[in-house]
Amino acid sequence: MDRNSTLEPEDWQDFRKLAHDALDNAISHLETRGNLPVWQRVPDDIRASLGAELPIMGSDIASLNQRIVRDFLPYDIGNTHPRFFGWVHGSGTVQGLIPDIFTAAMNANLGGRDHLANEVEKQVIDWCRCVFGLPDTAGGLVVSGTSMATLIALKTALNKCGGTELRDQGLAAMEKPLVGYASAEAHSCIARSFDILGLGKNALRPIPVDADFRMDPKALEAAIIGDLANGITPFCIIATAGSVNVGSIDPLNALAEIAEKHCLWLHVDGAFGALAVLSNPLKPLLAGIEKADSLAFDFHKWMHVNYDAGMVLVRNAEDQRQAFSERPDYLGAANRGLAAGNPWFCEYGPELSRGFRALKIWYQMAHFGLERIGAQIAQNCLQAQHLATRVAAEIELEGLAPTALNITCFRFNPGGLDETRLDRINGEIVIRLQETGVAAPSTTKIDGRLAIRVNITNHRTQFADLDLLADTVLALGRELV
Questions:
Q1: Which of 106, 241, 261, 372 could bond to 273 as cystine, CB 3.0-4.6 Å?
Q2: pTM over 0.90
Q3: Does the pLDDT at position 350 exceed 90?
Q4: What is the CATH number of the domain that holds 320?
């Protein structure tokens, strides 16, 4: 090998053309995505081709690009399609291609040091602090998503409770067992965080919910008082702003009062629902979110930033720094030069190597503006209500939960069938919707009954898409019966 060789293109003009062609293909894919099935199973031959041996010798860019366009793009998960309703996946934007290009060109590591990319992330954090009405002391971190944000927030809450001894000695430093509280509808990432932090999943107390699937404050306080009486130390309450099953929002003001009364950390899991504050009609539903000690949410859901992009905000940034900061000699601080820019972002979370996720968030907010994003959020909620109204109008369809935000849960039920058969029929309806490429809802259980779950965090969805979904569910259900 030539001692002066690099990985740069041998012909920059040829590379430029290939890169432009790749961009054109990506744009064309998104422009016409709605004309394709929502989801298609990956063909066996394409799966087999991805079992190839190690690529010891490289391939040319043109053939690799062609392969991606032919074999990869048609078989995506489907969340860029207007009738993708499964789980809580954001739909991204075609405009999001642009900051991703610049992000790759800069290839920045935001673990620390003094460079422009850090300033962009600081801007995004401050914008979000303002959106949620948190004080000037607040800070945060751009992360992969709410799962990581939750882990960071709960580690901060744990450290606030146990102090430096907990960081040095672990949970052995605590004289009494620690517990936290979340509703029975809380996302599984919270229990997973309890597991990762060494608390154990059983240290997370599930609190009953009311008829609207919101945490019951009286049951919460009773659980806290009971644990205190048994020599157990409560340290946090986790409120849900947009439950994953039905989109319900816990009574945040009431939970904040209980947290203050018992000196507990209040964390809000707002994975998608928190961003409803951007819509003036929906903002009152989140009253009290500004009282949170920490907040986790995703940009890649209702802000439609391309994956992955989430955030943790902490009311007092110094609490977060005290929970994570480590500066060994090789990461020493400086007042001038590249090692300046203190404190570094690596002092606020577990990652030293951090990508430049903040640019695509900054770009999305700056390009569309929060008013337009909020209007899209409100439209998704109106679409969910439209579907709920359609379900209520059809004798053979049955709503299974209130439509609080953007999620409608229902099932096909023509009457006269037992629950086991209804579950089987509705499960098959969802699979056929997916396999035919008509739509991609998911399923869940509501009070033990299998529901067709339609989540709308999709700016491409039209009201007609929901009518098509309802019509197809009726047709499939009748066929199966």
A1: 241
A2: yes
A3: yes
A4: 3.40.640.10
